[in-house]
Amino acid sequence: MYRGELSKMQGAVFLLVLLGAMSGREMLHLVHLPATTTVAENSPPETPVHKFSVNLSASLSPVIPGWPLIINTSPLTDAFKVNWLSDTDFEVVTTGTEQLDFETGPNIFDLQIYVKDDVGVTDLQILTVQVTDVNEPPQFQGNLAKGLDLYILEGANPGFLYQVEAFDPEDTSRNIPLHYFLIFHSVNFSMSANGTLFSTTEFDFEAGHKSFHLVAGVRDSQGLEASTTLHVNIVNVNDEIPRFTSPARVYTISEELVSGTIVANITAEDPDDKGFTGFLLYSITTPNRYFVINQLTGTIQVAHRLDRDAGELRQNPSISLEVLVKDRPSGGQENRMQITFIVEDINDNPAMCTKTTFSIMVPEREAKGTLLLDLNKFCFDDDSKAPNNQFNFTTPSGVGSSGRFSQDPAGSGKIVLIGDLDYENSSNLAAGNKYTMIIQVQDVAPPYYKNNIHIYICTKPENEFPLAFDRPSYVFEVSELRPARTRVGLVHATDKDFPQSSIMYSISMGGASLQYPNIFWINPQTGELQLVTKADYETTPIYILRIQATNVEDSSSVTVTVNILGENDEKPICTPNSYFLAIPMDLKVGTNIQNFKLTCTDLDSSPRSFRYSMGPGNINSHFTFSPNAGSNVTSLLLATRFDCASGLDKIWDYKLLVYITDDNLLSGRKKAQAHVETGTVTLSISVIPHPTTAVTTTARGEERRDEDYKARGFGGNNSDELRL
To answer: What letter would DSSP give residue 62?
Structure first.
C-alpha cells in the first residue's frame, strides 16, 4: 500500500517537471539572434563569424537536416554559410567564395537565418556582420609582380634603367607615399626612394658582364613590405667582323648528284663571340639555282639537278658563288668569300630515241631490199663528251620478223625488207600479216645503258582480185499470195583479197510498181532478197532488178529476174452490189423478180467459174438465183410462195446476203487444195401485202422505197402501215 502511493507521487512530480519544461519553450526559436558581429577583411574560408543555438519547440521535434539556412542577404552575397556544431548548436562562417575587401566591397551584411523542425515549426532572425579593416602590405602589379626581365646594351652610359611602381591597398586615393629600395646591395645598380632604378657601371659583355639578379623592395607607412625580382640582361653589341676558317675555295663535283647532297662546308668564327659560331648566319649572294646554304651551319647542298649535258653547264661547267657570313640578321658585321664548283661529266644519259615505238605499213608487193626505217634519225645521246655520247644498235629479234627483215649493215639501225609480204600467202596469214621486232639502242661506254625499240610492221593489202557474184545472173520466183518479208532468194558475192572486208548489198535499179516505189528489200549484210509488200501478178508479172555489192575497195552488179506466180487472189465483183426491190405478196413462183440480174467479173477467173449462193436472210427459202453456177450473169427468182394466212411468213422486209464464189470449174479435190475467193452482194426486198400502185425498183435502196410507200398512202419507212 505504501509502495503504491509512493509510485503515484513520483509520477505526479515527473508530470509537474515536464509541464514546467514545456512552459519554458512552447515555440521553436533561435538563441543569440538577432545579433551584430564583426569579421576581418580577407578572412580565409571557414573563419568563425558568430555562434548561435536553437531552442526546440514543446514537441521536442528536431531541426530538419540542412537547416538553419541563410535565406536572404542584404546586400546579396555568397560569402557566408551555417555550419552544424551539434543538434542545437550552429556557427556562421566564411565560405571563401567571395573576397571580403574593406576597401572595395560592402562593409555591412544583414543575414536572414531561417530554421525549421520536422513538424513545420519555424523561426527567422537577423545577423548583422560588419567587415573590419586590416592593414595590407603594398603590392606589385602585372608582370612586375611575377618578376621582370630588363635589358641594357653593353657600353651604354650609366643612368636611368626602369621605374618600379607598387600600390597600397589601404590607400585607395594613392596619397600616402611608399618607400622603395634594393634588398641586396649592388655595386652596379642603385634605386631611389621613389622606385627609380639606375645603372652605375658601363657594362662589357665580353668581360663577363652578361646578367644580374636584383630584388626590389617596397615598404608602406606602417612598415609592411613586399618584394619582386628584376633580371637585368646585358645585350652584346656586335663590333667584330667574322672570319672564314674553311681553307678550300675550289670544289670538283660530279653531275647528277642527288638533291640535298652536301658538296662543301663553309666555316667561320666571330671574334665578338668566340666559340659560339652557331650565331653566325650564312647566305649565297650570287643568284643561282643549283646550290643552297644552311644559314646556321654553312653547309652547301645541291638544290637543283646538275646536268652537265644540257643548258649553260654544257658550255661552261664552272659555277662561281659568293658566300656571305653575318653575325646578325641585319645591321651586324659581315664578310664575303668567292668559291667555285667544277661539274664533271659522267655517263648518265642512255641513248634515247624521240620515238621508241614504230608502226610501219608496207605494201604487200613492196620490192626486197627496200629501206623501211633508219633509226639514226630518231636516236641520240645527250652526254656531252665521247665516249659517253656514243651508241649502236643490237641485232633485231621478234615474232615473225626472221627471214623477212634485217639490219643492214649490222648495228647501223637501218631496217630493210628481205622477205615476202604477200598478204594472201598462207605463212603470212598464219603470222597475221603483222610482225614485231625488238632492237636495243645501247651506250658503248659503261655502264652500257640500254633502251628497247619496238617496231611493228603491218602488211598493207592491195586490191589484186575483183569483187564478183557467184552467178552471172539470178532468176527467182515468188507467188503473188506471199506476204511482206517473204524470202525471194539470196545473192552472194566474194573477194579473194585479204583481209576480207564486209560486203554490203543494195538494189540499185528496178523493183517498183505503180502503187509502190519499192516491192523488194535486200538485207545489206546477207544479200537475202525479201518482199516489202505483196506482189500483184495481174499488174506486173516480171521484175528485173539490178543488185550491187560493195566493199571498201570495189563494187560489182548483177541482174536479178523475179517472176511473179499468178494465183487466184481476186474476188468476184458484181453489179449492182446492193439493190432494193419491192414485190407483191401474190407474185407467182418462178418469176424473175423485177427482171433483176447480177453481172459479175473476176480478173483471174473464167466467166463460167462463178457459183451463187444465199447467205443469212433468205427465211423460208423464198428466193433463188438462176442459173446458180456456170455463168457471169444470173437472175433473181421467187422460189416459194408467201404464206401469211397460216402464219408461216411473218417477215415483210428481207435483207439477203448473196455469195459469189469463183470455184465452179474446180473438182472437189481441187477445191480443197486451191485458193478460192468469194464476193458478196446485198439485196433489200420488201413484200407488199395488197399493192395499190405499180411497183418500181431502184438501186438507191431505202430512199426510193420510202417514196413508193408514200405514193401508195403509207408513211415513210413504216412497215406496220404497209401491212395495214
So the answer is: P
Of 471, 446, 459, 373, residue with least CA distance to 419: 459
Q: What is the pLDDT of residue 108?
A: 94
pLDDT tens digit sequence for 421-464: 888 777 777 677 888 889 998 988 888 888 999 989 888 888 88
Domains by residue range for the chain, with CATH: 29-132 (2.60.40.60), 139-235 (2.60.40.60), 243-344 (2.60.40.60), 352-454 (2.60.40.60), 468-565 (2.60.40.60), 573-688 (2.60.40.60)
Q: Cell numbers for 494, please give them.
A: 566474194
DSSP symbols for 22-42 = HHH-SS-EEES-SEEEEEETT
The pLDDT, as a whole number, for residue 701 is 40
- Residue 621 corresponds to which amino acid? S
Give CA–CA dist 560/580, Å, rounded.
53
Q: What is the pTM of this model?
A: 0.37
Longest dimension (CA), the chain: 173
pLDDT of the residue at 172: 66
Q: How many CB atoms lie within 10 A of CB 188?
A: 17
Between 18-22, 98-102, 592-596, the lowest mean confidence (pLDDT) is in: 18-22
**C-alpha cell of 182?**
634594393
Q: What is the mean pLDDT of residues 225-251?
A: 88
Element (H, E) at 683: strand 678-688
How far is residue 633 CA from its own chain's centroid? Answer: 84
C-alpha cell at 500: 576480207
Instruction: Check residues 158 and 724 and name the one with the higher pLDDT.
Output: 158
Q: What's the rounded Cα separation, in Å, for the pair 53 and 375? A: 117
Whether 84 and 92 have beta carbons less than 8 Å apart is answered as no
Cis check: omega of the bond before 75, within 30 degrees of 0:
yes
- Residues 140-160 as b/e (b if ≥16 CB within 10 A, e otherwise) read beeebeeebebebebebeeee
Q: Model confidence at 349, in pLDDT bands (50, 70, 90)?
A: confident
R_g over Cα of the chain = 68
Dist CA 226 CA 135 (whole Å)? 13
- The number of angstroms, rounded, from the C-alpha of 395 to the middle of its chain's C-alpha atoms is 52
C-alpha 245 chain-centroid distance: 62
Give me the phi and psi of 672, to 5 degrees please. -70, -25
**Rounded to whole angstroms, how far apart are CA atoms 584 and 689?**
6
Rounded CA gap, 155 and 380, in Å? 69
Q: pLDDT per residue over 388-423, tens digit each?
A: 888 889 888 877 777 888 888 888 889 999 888 888
User: Are 50 and 127 a contacting pair, CB within 8 Å?
Assistant: yes
Buried b / exposed e over 327-359, threshold 16 CB at 10 Å, is beeeebbebeeebebebebebbbbbebeeeebe
Encode pLDDT of 15-54 as tens digits: 333 333 344 445 889 999 999 999 998 899 999 999 999 9
The sign of the dihedral angle between the CA atoms of 508, 513, 514, 518 is negative
Distance CA 287, CA 29 (A): 96
Q: What is the DSSP string of 421-461?
A: --TT-HHHHHTTTEEEEEEEEEESSTT--EEEEEEEEEEE-
Q: What is the band of 669 on the pLDDT scale with cuts at 50, 70, 90?
A: low
Q: What is the DSSP string of 115-138?
A: EEBTTS-EEEEEEEEEEEP-----
Whole-number Å distance between alpha carbons of 708 and 693: 9
Residue 1 has pLDDT above 50, yes or no: no
Question: What are phi and psi for residue 336, nearest 5 degrees?
Answer: -135, 155
Q: Tell me: pLDDT of 670 over 90.
A: no
Q: How many whole angstroms from its chain centre is CA 160?
A: 71
